[in-house]
Each structure stands twice: as C-alpha cells, then as structure tokens.
Amino acid sequence: MSIGTEPATERAATPAAPAVLELANVSRWYGNVVAVNDVTMSLGPGVTGLLGPNGAGKTTLLHMMAGFLAPSRGTVRVAGRPTWRNPDVYRDLGLVTERENVHGFLTAREFIRASAKLQRLPDAEAATRRAIDMVDLASAADRRIDTYSKGMRQRARVAAALVHDPRVLLLDEPFNGMDPRQRMHMMELLHQMAAAGRTVLFSSHILEEVEQLSGTVQVIVAGRLAASGDYRKIRRLMTSRPHEFVISSSDDRALAVALMAEDSVAGVEIVAHTGRGRGATAGGLKIRAADYGRFSRALPRIARTGGIRLLTVVPADESLESVFSYLVGAR
Ligand SMILES: Nc1ncnc2c1ncn2[C@@H]1O[C@H](COP(=O)(O)OP(=O)(O)OP(=O)(O)O)[C@@H](O)[C@H]1O
Prior knowledge:
By secondary structure, the chain is of the alpha/beta class. The chain folds into two domains: 11-238, 3-Layer(aba) Sandwich (Rossmann fold); 241-316, Alpha-Beta Plaits (2-Layer Sandwich). Helices cover 32% and strands 27% of the residues. Helix 2 (108-118) runs parallel beside helix 4. The protein is elongated, with a radius of gyration of 24 Å. The structure holds adenosine-5'-triphosphate. Adenosine-5'-triphosphate is lined by residues 30, 33, 35, 52, 54-60. InterPro entries: AAA+_ATPase, ABC_transporter-like_ATP-bd, ABC_transporter-like_CS, P-loop_NTPase. Belongs to the ABC transporter superfamily.
C-alpha cells in the first residue's frame, strides 16, 4: 500500500467482494469549511472501520452515506442507487448516530417498534421482536429506556437501526462511553451482522477498537482518505515510524549513557521532575527510537546488563493525531 495524497487500496489482496456502498469523488463543505474532500471508496460485505481523529469528517461522511446530507459534489450509491433524495434506498440502510437521541419515557420495545413502523414493515411486531433478540435486550425490553445503562441504550438504538434488516449498517462512534463488556457484546453483534452478509461500517478515533473488530480500514484525515485497506499493513506502517518514549528507571543517567551507544536510538534527553502534587510531571529519559522493533528488544537487555531496574516505559507520541500526520506524510 502507499500513503500520502493518493490513498492506497489493498482490496486486491482480499477476495473481491461485490461493492455494496460506493462513493465517487464525494466532497462536502459548510461555507468555507471543507469537511470531506474528494473521497472515493467502495465497501463490500464485512466490517470496515472508518478511522480518523476528531473533526476529520467521519460524521459528515456517514450522514452522506445514509442519505441524510447532500454531497456538495460527487455521488454516494448503495447497490448502484444514489442515497440522496432517494427514499427507496433507506430500506437498505441503517444509521446509528453518535448523539443519543432516544426518548427515555419510551420502553425499548416502543422505541424499536416506532422505527419498524416508519419503515412500513408488514409485520412490525415480529421485526421488533427479532431486533430485540439480536441485541440481547429481551429481558429489559418493556422497561423505560431512562432506566437503562449507557450500553443498553446503545443496543436499543442499534436495534432500531437494524429492525428492517438493512444491507448496510452505519454506526458513528458506537463504542463511545461503553465499558469493556458492553464493547465486547457490540463487537460480537457487528461480527454476526457481517457473517450474515451485511456491510457494516463503524467510525472510531481509537486504533485499538478498529484493530479488534475489523480487518479493513478507511483512514480519514482532514476530510481526505489517507489510507485504505488491510489493517495490519497500515498498523505496520504506524509501528515502523519513529517513536518516542518516556522512561524512568533506578538509574536514569547510567541508562542514558548506555542508550546513547545503541544504534536503534536516535536521541536521548534527560527530563527534569517538575511541580508537586497533581500537576507534577515525573522525570526520566525521553528517548527517540529510530527503530521501534529493535529498540524494544534492546532496552531490557541494556537495562539487565547495566544492573538498572526499569520503572516505567511510556510512549510519548502515541496520540492518534501523530500517527495520522505520519501516515499522510506531514512529518
Ligand atoms: N453543520 C456544520 N456546519 C459547519 N461546519 C461543520 C458542520 N458539521 C461539521 N462541520 C465541520 O466539518 C468538519 C468535519 O466534521 P465531522 O463532524 O464530520 O468530523 P468527525 O470526524 O465526525 O469528528 P467528531 O468525531 O469530532 O464528530 C469539522 O471541521 C467540523 O467543524
């Protein structure tokens, strides 16, 4: 794959799945703000992660995919049909928005049934039951939503979005605020949908969520598609970039001297302790590793040889923004 202004596609490496959702040169601007800039992508069945930092344009993109928002330029198609101003396509689409717009005075069953009726399903009751079972809410379905935990509310929203069994399910930051158990449950559900041949796209600004859930990612940065394809290849690019760590040890000075002689290390800086109490920062060494893999093998060996105890090793530049700016070649 390649990175930079031209996004790369790894689809050739995976068996060619028929494209269900296709974006052709899609842009969207709000006044002077270009939220999405000339994005072309095509998605087939399975789970895909839409990864990008806050403000990258993920929500705007998902809303255009769902037919909620008009592209300023370009076209979004589902199964060959444009999503904008085409209500027939809504039958094939489900969207779980980022914001929690659920009426707490309704029970989950009432809420999901309302969605089934909006879709004019012939048997709204049966569809509601099926959706409730899918998200595992049967035992709580007749309780008011305002008595639910965050994860349960999210499941009710997912059930409402898939009550009509759409081919494409779009989810905007579905794991926000969930605890690990709720997260696992949601991941299982999305996998089940994918196994049933559905096209599932979820947005996230957290690398690990995408890693756990999906083999394929679309990386969006500042409105543009920055990379696209196999997660492991993109991850490898991320780990082969230069890394910074802050290390504290039983003897920082001796460790600094030893690390300076190590050729996987590009820079060593001694960081002073500052402040007291909550605002204090611990001192230690700031290391710039030229090669992450070799450095992580060398560090324990060097410490052992020097009789130095490592206390903490913390990545200093693991923010997703720094990974993204590396991916788009901005550093
Ligand atoms: N209605 C709007 N009017 C003006 N600007 C907007 C509007 N909606 C979004 N934007 C801008 O468009 C850009 C992309 O926003 P968008 O919400 O799509 O990003 P995002 O990746 O979903 O971020 P987040 O996860 O923070 O919601 C941002 O600069 C945002 O400020």
